[in-house]
Design brief:
287 residues; alpha/beta; Glucose Oxidase, domain 1; 7-stranded mixed beta barrel; two-stranded antiparallel sheet; 28% helix; binds zinc ion; KFase_sf
Length: 287
């Protein structure tokens, strides 16, 4: 009987830890709306809705019909950089394997409290090492999401780009950190809540080159300002528009709690409690 009580207590407390750590029970959208206010990399990079049909125009009863045409750079809003963007032999958007986009593990490296809004902050190798020491190794296909605390500036273009004497200024990833990332073949993508994985003032784009050189795709302008996103224990669905020759593409990114057989994490844990409870009863009965 003591065994039974201990078993139930252990499973319940494990579930409680998971629940209180994240409060993350529903899917989270990590993409921004794409519209005329979206801040482009260059001031004249715009999403444009160039044609609108909206009216009661379908005969015979004048039923409603609406249609827009849009024009946009590949690299606008929340988007994916295909390896081909900086690697001549790298994959284009439509060639990226589905298993690296769908239900990959999300790794949330949140350095907001160290950045303190400082645009010169650079994520270094030691930040990534510390993450793995705290939360464990990265052993399944994963996408790193680096949270610089920059997402709240997104809709204010000059604050987001950090313009200063015509140069952009926002945090980025260091060259040693990029090398650390490509040494782990389980890391298939890297996302940031800034306009670029390189620091804002870079004009050599070394981090882009190192990561795409290893066929790692990049996600930029990721909406990481959702406080429920835990350090790990969630999965990502990354859906770029399937552009055949795409060097990049606007992308929808969804984070969701892990699912096993379609059941949510909490349900699985309750089921585990039930199974262990029955097993304990049987064991007690055999004795
Ligand atoms: Zn890009």
């Amino acid at each position: 009987m003591i065994f039974l009580v201990l078993t139930i207590t252990a499973v319940v407390s494990a579930e409680t830890i998971i629940a209180t750590k994240s409060n993350f029970t529903k899917p989270i959208d990590l993409s921004y709306n794409l519209d005329e206010d979206t801040p482009g990399w260059f001031p004249d990079n715009h999403y444009a809705r160039i044609k609108i049909i909206a009216g009661n125009s379908i005969p015979p009863d004048n039923a409603w019909y609406a249609e827009n045409t849009f024009e946009a750079p590949e690299h606008i809003g929340t988007h994916l950089d295909a390896p081909y963007h900086f690697n001549k032999k790298g994959r284009k958007v439509a060639d990226i394997p589905l298993e690296t986009l769908f239900h990959v593990e999300g790794i949330h490296v949140d350095v907001t409290n160290e950045v303190h809004g400082e645009p010169k902050f650079v994520l270094d190798e030691h930040h990534l090492r510390r993450w793995t020491e705290t939360y464990g190794k990265i052993e399944s296909k994963s996408v790193l999401l680096i949270n610089f605390g920059w997402a709240n500036r997104y809709w204010n273009r000059s604050a987001y780009m950090g313009y200063n004497e015509n140069s952009r200024n926002f945090p980025g990833i260091s060259i040693p950190a990029a090398r650390w990332i490509v040494e782990n073949p389980n890391i298939v993508g890297v996302g940031v809540d800034t306009p670029s994985v390189d620091v804002g003032h870079s004009n050599t784009f070394d981090v882009h080159r190192i990561l795409t050189g290893a066929n790692v795709y990049l996600l930029e302008n990721v909406a990481l300002n959702n406080t429920y996103l835990p350090a790990r224990g969630f999965q990502l669905v990354v859906m770029p528009m399937k552009l055949t020759h795409g060097t990049g593409a606007p992308t929808r990114i969804i984070a969701s709690p892990y699912c096993i057989g379609g059941a949510g994490l909490a349900k699985v844990s309750k089921f585990a409690i039930f199974v262990m409870f029955v097993a304990s009863l049987l064991k007690a009965h055999v004795r």
